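Entry 12.
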Amino acid sequence: MIVKKTPKKELVGDIEKNIPYVFLTRRPKSPVTEQIELLNIGDSFLTNNVVSDASARATACRLGKKLDRKFLTSATKKGFRVWRIA
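Predicted 3D structure (tokens):
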């Protein structure tokens, strides 16, 4: 019986020097995030670009803590409205 030896796969490559590191970039901001950041007190905007009212609330809450602002969100028939209240 003849047994063929298969070549071993190389699991680790050769050591290389002076290869520049590629830094990961941040993902772009969503349009909702950009709009929320631009709101002044009393301003609001309507969006249907979010999956749910909970998503709009979570985004407003996260940015409110980050930017020290307060927002109110509400689901409407046309989409989701976000107000800046403080």
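Annotation: Residues 53-67 form the longest helix (15 residues). The chain is about 25% helix and 15% strand.
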